[in-house]
Amino acid sequence: MTDNGTPQQHPDCLACQILAGTQTVPGGTIAENPWWVADHCVGPYGLGSVVIKTRTHRENLWELTAAESASMGPFLQQMSEAIALAMGAERVYVGLWVDQPPYHVHFVLQPRYPDGHHPEELGLKGLELQVFRTLGKPPSQADMEAAAEQIRAVWQQKFAAQASTSCES
C-alpha cells in the first residue's frame, strides 16, 4: 500500500492500468472483493475466460498478504462456478502464467464447453485446448461484453453479498 492507503501500482503493468482505469476491458469489471478483481480476459483465450488479479501489484504468490491469500480460494471458487453456470461450461481450467514483465499475479479461468457446443474447438481438452485457443483469434468485443454480463449476473445473484465478508483484512 502507498502512504495514503491506495493499492501500490506499477505504471507499465497492463493489469495495473486496467485497475487504474487507463485501459479498458470489454464488459468491464465482472466481480470484485477488497483484494481481487475479475474481468473478461483479453486475447485468444476463449469466450467466457476471466482474469482474476490482485488489486495491489504483486509479482509472486509469496508476496500476497494473509488477507489476499485467504480470500483467493473462495474468489476462485465463486468465479469458476459463475463461469460454469453462466456459460454452460462443463469444466473451468485455472492457470497462473506470469512470465512477462512487469509481472502481476493473475489467474486465467478458461471454460471448457461440452462437445458440440463449440465445434471449431474439435473436442480438445486441457493443454491442447489452451494451445489451440492461443493460436486463434480473440472473441469479438461484443461477444466478450455479453459473456462478461452473463457471468456478472450469476456472480451477483449467488455471491455478491458474501464477497466483502469472506475474509477479514
Task: Give a quick precis of the structure.
This protein has 169 residues and is α+β, with helices and mostly antiparallel strands.
| Structural class by SSE content | alpha+beta
* Estimated helix fraction: 25-40%
Name the helix and strand elements from N-terminus to C-terminus, one letter apiece: HEEEHEEHHH
Through-space gap between termini = 13 Å
Put simply, the count of helices is: 5
Indicate the proportion of strand residues.
15-25%
Q: What average pLDDT do the residues reach? A: 89
Largest sheet strand order: 1-2-3-5-4
Q: Looking at the structure, what is the overall shape?
A: globular
What does this structure look like?
This protein is α+β, with helices and mostly antiparallel strands. 36% of the residues lie in helices and 15% in strands. The chain has five helices and five strands. It has helices spanning 14-20, 66-87, 126-134, 141-158, 160-163, and strands at residues 29-32, 36-40, 50-54, 91-95, 106-112. The protein has a five-stranded antiparallel beta sheet, sandwiched between helices. A hairpin with a 3-residue loop joins strand 1 (29-32) and strand 2. The longest helix is centred in the middle third of the chain and has 22 residues, at 66-87. It is globular, with a radius of gyration of 16 Å. The chain starts with 13 loop residues before the first helix and ends in a 6-residue tail after the last helix. The model is unreliable at 1-5 (pLDDT under 50).
